[in-house]
Design goal:
Blueprint: H1 4-25, H2 30-57, H3 65-87, H4 93-108, H5 125-152, H6 158-190, H7 198-219, H8 224-248
Helix pairs in contact: 1-2, 1-4, 2-3, 3-4, 3-5, 5-6, 5-8, 6-7, 6-8, 7-8
């Protein structure tokens, strides 16, 4: 299948990052408008690519590392344009666009061949489980960007801190839905809701870290850099859940690599 739309989306993400960066240094309405135009073009391009791959494969394109990275990059961009339009903050846009660009860049290095689904993946739970997980992952990635900016800047970023909190709450909800749907799927595929597979274990570790973040913020009043550090730790755990488990630890999810 042609990768034209994937390549066009990569270029659009790159231009969006350039214009978002320019808007940080130059007070010109053209730059943020151009950035939004290109990120929307990237979203549309990826949507077409995902739809075409779905049609060609006769299944949801969500079964391996390449396909999940494309969906991950798409979800990051969707959240970026939503946050940009809703909160009008410039601080996180360029770095968030970079994260989406990195996802697509990594995907471009992987095998794009369409292969049949393994028996364990032939389930209606596939789409729900993977989409909820990666919407959650995308939200937590945006929160990570916000947290890095909070940690690196000496000035207090109350606006960014509040945005980060809301995004983590949103991401935590979808992470929870991903774990629940995965458990139901596991029971239908393997006869058990939970088997302490490495992927399951690290998903739970990631979930607990973000649960601690939300608890500490609600009950302990943690804000600013304290909360940002928890967000960074949670993101590192999320990355290991996504990449490290697939490549380093053998388990029932090894097919995802």
């Amino acid at each position: 299948m042609s990768s034209l739309y994937l390549n066009l989306s990569f270029g659009a993400y790159f231009l969006a990052m350039v214009f978002y960066t320019a808007s940080l240094f130059f007070k010109n309405k053209i730059f943020p408008q151009a950035a939004r135009f290109f990120i929307i073009c990237g979203i549309l391009g990826l949507s077409i690519y995902i739809g075409a791959r779905w049609q060609a494969a006769l299944r949801p394109p969500l079964s391996n590392m390449f396909e999940s990275l494309v969906v991950f990059g798409w979800a990051i961009a969707v959240l970026l344009i939503f946050i940009d339009l809703k909160y009008k903050t410039k601080a996180i846009n360029a770095l968030t666009a970079l994260m989406g660009l990195l996802a697509l860049g990594y995907a471009s290095l992987l095998d794009k061949e369409i292969v049949p689904l393994l028996p364990a993946l032939k389930s209606n739970w596939l789409t729900l489980h993977v989409l909820t997980c990666f919407i959650g992952y995308a939200a937590l990635t945006v929160a990570f960007v916000s947290s890095i900016i909070i940690l690196c800047n000496k000035e207090e970023h109350k606006n960014l801190d509040n945005i980060s909190h809301k995004i983590i709450a949103f991401g935590f909800l979808f992470l929870t839905l991903g774990i629940i749907s995965g458990s139901v799927w596991a029971n239908s595929a393997w006869g058990t809701y939970w088997s302490w597979d490495p992927k399951e274990t690290w998903s739970l570790i990631t979930w607990v870290i973000y649960a601690i973040y939300l608890h500490a913020r609600l009950k302990r009043g943690w804000k600013g850099k304290k909360a940002a550090w928890l967000s960074v730790i949670g993101f590192i755990a999320m990355l290991f859940t996504y990449f490290g488990v697939n490549y380093l630890l053998a388990g029932l999810h090894s097919y995802a690599s």
